[in-house]
Write a structure and sequence with these properties.
By secondary structure, the chain is of the alpha/beta class. The protein contains nine helices and ten strands. β9, α8 and β10 form a beta-alpha-beta unit. α1 (9-26) crosses α2 (41-52). The protein is globular and about 45 Å long. The structure holds 2-phosphoglycolic acid. Residues 35, 37-39, 128-130, 160 line the site of 2-phosphoglycolic acid. 2-phosphoglycolic acid is lined by residues 35, 37-39, 128-130, 160.
């Protein structure tokens, strides 16, 4: 595993954009897995800027969201589809997001994972990490072998999206996520974390044993993982 520590969130966004551009530069038809959340917003803005300026070309790349809310109406403001429409204004070959209003969320996300495989699998899966250690919507107690599935969202995960949905009550209780095993099939993985509130969980994920309590710790079992952290998120690490 590689750990890159950047001085602050702005530098982290630039480096993350560099890494994503490098993946697409090396393979223009790259398949990307992409997260939502506050952390990647600045990196996505930078990708959008680079594409508009002609500095990067995503026109042959395909992006798959790593998760989505379920049992939500398609025009709910807090869905991941709405997030990408707002923050990732890239001329991609395709941006695929599971349908938040799918009648059978479990079937929807399993078909979605099949689609990722049919596209050739992810060349680069970008992830955030939740304060509870989740990656995508793989909440604590997610097994190493877990596959794409509908999941019950934890209170802390729902709370993080209350503002985007307008209120906590409006946040769906069910999500759809690629599983840990699906994520570990990506050829490379990039995890982004910034801010002091992530320091303790980053340290557990990076330095603790791999276990279901901290789903991000399963990433230790992948040979091509890079953790990109700002100083605050790295401040709990004992080894650098
Ligand atoms: P955040 O979310 O970027 O908003 O902190 C990360 C996550 O929950 O995966």
């Amino acid at each position: 595993m590689k750990i890159e520590v950047l001085p602050d969130a702005a530098a982290l966004a630039q480096r993350a954009a560099d890494a994503i551009c490098a993946a697409v530069g090396a393979k223009p038809s790259a398949v990307l897995g992409l997260p939502t959340g506050a952390t990647p917003i600045e990196a996505y803005a930078e990708l959008t800027r680079r594409a508009a300026a002609g500095e990067a070309d995503f026109s042959r790349a395909t992006a798959f969201a790593v998760d989505e809310f379920a049992a939500a109406s398609r025009d709910a403001p807090g869905t991941n589809a709405a997030f990408f429409a707002r923050h990732l204004r890239l001329p991609l070959a395709a941006l695929r997001v599971p349908r938040a209003d799918a009648p059978d969320p479990d079937a929807e996300i399993r078909a979605f994972a099949d689609e990722v495989r049919r596209a050739g699998g992810m060349d680069l899966c970008v992830l955030g990490i939740g304060v509870n250690g989740h990656i995508a919507f793989n909440e604590p107690d997610s097994a190493r072998a877990s596959r794409a599935r509908a999941v019950e969202l934890r209170a802390e995960s729902r709370a993080a999206h209350a503002a985007a949905f307008g209120s906590l009550d409006a946040v769906p209780r069910i999500g759809m996520t690629l599983g840990i095993a699906d994520i570990l099939e990506a050829r490379a993985i990039l995890v982004l974390a910034s801010g002091a509130r992530k320091a303790a969980i980053v340290a557990r994920a990076v330095e603790g044993d791999a276990c279901a309590d901290v789903p991000a710790s399963w990433l230790r079992e992948h040979p091509g993982v890079t953790w990109m952290l700002d100083e605050a998120a790295a401040s709990g690490l004992t080894r650098r």
